[in-house]
# Entry
Amino acid sequence: MVGFVVLIDVLGWRKLAFPLVVVGMNSIFIYSAGFLIKGSIDNWIIAFSGGFKFIGTLAPVAEACSVMVVLWYLCFWLYQRRGESEEDDSEPTKLPRALPGRCENHRRFAYQSRKFPYRARPGAEKPGPFASP
# Structure
C-alpha cells in the first residue's frame, strides 16, 4: 500500500493506476462477472489456447491471468462507454460540472449562514429543533 502511495501520489505516476481505475469504476460488474461468466471465459480460453499445455506446470497461472485480462477488457469496454446516451450513439454525453448559478448561490448562502447563522425572513422566529420548513 505504501508503495502505491509513493508511486502514484508522491512521484506522480498516475498511469500505473489506470487498470485499477477501470476495475474500480466497474466493480459491481467485475464482481458479478467473476461468479457468472468466469467459467465460460475459462472454457473459451482453454479451447482457443489448448489449455496452455506448452507452458507446462505454469499453465493454470496463464489461464487465470488470461481470464483476468478478458474480464479487465470487458470493464475497459464499459469504461469507454460510461457517458454515452441511448439516443445519440455518435458522441458521449457531456455532463455539466455544476448547474448554472448553483456555485455562486451556494457560496453566497454559505457566507450568510456563517455570518448570520439564524438569519431568516423578517418577522420569523429562531427555528427550534422540531420546526417545520
Residues 17-80 form one domain.
